[in-house]
Design goal:
Blueprint (H helix, E strand, L loop, with lengths): L1 H31 L4 H77 L8 E13 L2 E6 L12 E3 L5 E8 L4 E5 L6 E6 L5 E5 L6 E5 L12 E4 L11 E5 L4 E4 L7 E6 L8
Antiparallel strand pairs: 1-2, 1-12, 2-5, 3-4, 3-12, 4-5, 6-7, 6-9, 7-8, 8-11, 9-10, 10-11
Length: 273
Amino acid sequence: MTKDKLSYKLTKMLKSVLAAAALPIFIIYIMVAKPDYTIMNGLAHIVLPVAHWVGDVITWPVHVIGQSVTWIRETSLLRAENEELRARLDMALSNQHQCEIAIDENKKLEQEMDIKRASPFKTVIADIQFDDSAFHHTTFLINRGKKSDLEHGMVVVSFDNRLIGTIIDCGSVFCRVRALTDADTNLAVRISGTDISGFLQGNGKNKSFIGFFSNPAFVGHAGLKVITSNISGILPAGIYIGNMIDDKHVDVLRPNQVSRVMVLKHNNMDSYK
């Protein structure tokens, strides 16, 4: 009984193998010897899906390996990009920390040097329209005036908060400014970080003369920073003017060195103290 079943299974398997082997031969025979397109079309609906399925089964490991390689490559690229982004983030955080340190140091330095920024004041931005230097006088025009609420006596500074001059005359849309080198300039000043006071006087040249009265024995020297003083009640205190270039002269900013300025607006001198 068992042998009959085994022989029956073997016989059935052998027939299936022979049928599978004979099928391609039969198809080739029809295509070459007796091309019957009706039969070929009918077989195509059976053979082609089977061939596609067999091809997919055979090539499945290849597809899996290809997808794995692609995934590994993309993962490597993502890791490399992630490392680069982390490095950039670390650099940005380091730069931010350095900027914060620099800002703190700058604030401390300004406090030590008694230098003030223009930010506490309302400002009007203006362009220098005309630079007029004749003999010992140096004045210039800016394209803002009374319509911008500017007045006589207001201070004109550069964008790095360095004093350039004071307004001496205002029209509706312009103002005339006296530069620090003008012969009529006479400003109360102080050596930054000290109580040494004096007056800055223009001489019509590229540098201004400084004289000290609070301590006549004091002798200035190159490198000392000069800032405005509020002793006379005319200027805001603590605005940077320039550095001394010898024992009597200060290197001041001239109008031909800038093209755009800021005017510090004020309603009363209490805001300068």
